[in-house]
Amino acid sequence: MDLMFGDFLKRLTQPDPAPLADSDARLALTALLVRVARSDNDYATSEARLIEEIAATRYGLDAAQARDLRSQGEALEREAPDTVRFTRAIKEAVAYEDRLAVIEALWQVVLADGTRSDEENALLRLVANLLGVTDTDSHTARQRVAQSS
């Protein structure tokens, strides 16, 4: 395991983790976006670009910074524990509004290729639940994304 991510994941998954610093929360949430994008075993270039766009818009990053965050998110996602543990850890360390915004971003990624696979739908339901985001809030987020596309 990469030393930098090993320490990060250890802090994230310890019992009662401290709230994450903004930069760490960005990284964890970006890794979660990558995990969902990879869930259908087809991590398309369009999905990677969308993750960069989401990062740039959400965190005020330029193109190079957004690309770097996505790259770090990809590396962290490879090292992260199973989705259940990883997502629960994020829930404990990230504010609800940020988790809800991530659900909306996850819907952007899922809907980016124009199709919703059963794997993506199932994973998004699981992730929303594990993040403590209500079904109603997740549904509303999906509708917002679908209407804006």
Give structural attributes.
TerB-like, 149 residues, mainly alpha
Looking at this structure, what is the CATH superfamily? Answer: TerB-like
End-to-end distance: 38 Å
Compute the number of helices: 8
Strand content: under 5%
By CATH, the topology is TerB-like
Order of helices and strands: HHHHHHHH
| Helix percent band | over 70%
Largest sheet: none
Q: Structural class, judged by helices and strands?
A: mainly alpha
Give the second-level CATH assignment, the architecture. Answer: Orthogonal Bundle
Question: Regions with pLDDT < 50 over 5+ consecutive residues?
Answer: none
Radius of gyration: 14 Å
Q: Give the beta-strand count.
A: 0
> Averaging pLDDT over every residue, what do you get?
86
CATH class: Mainly Alpha
Compose a concise summary of this entry.
This protein has 149 residues and is mainly α. It has a single domain (22-148), classed as TerB-like (Orthogonal Bundle). Helix content is 77%, strand content 0%.
Layout of SSEs?
Elements: H1 3-13, H2 22-38, H3 45-59, H4 63-79, H5 83-93, H6 96-111, H7 118-130, H8 135-148
Helix pairs in contact: 2-3, 2-4, 2-5, 2-6, 3-4, 3-6, 6-7, 6-8
Write a structural description.
With 149 residues, this protein is an all-alpha fold. It contains eight helices and no strands. It has one domain: TerB-like, CATH 1.10.3680.10.
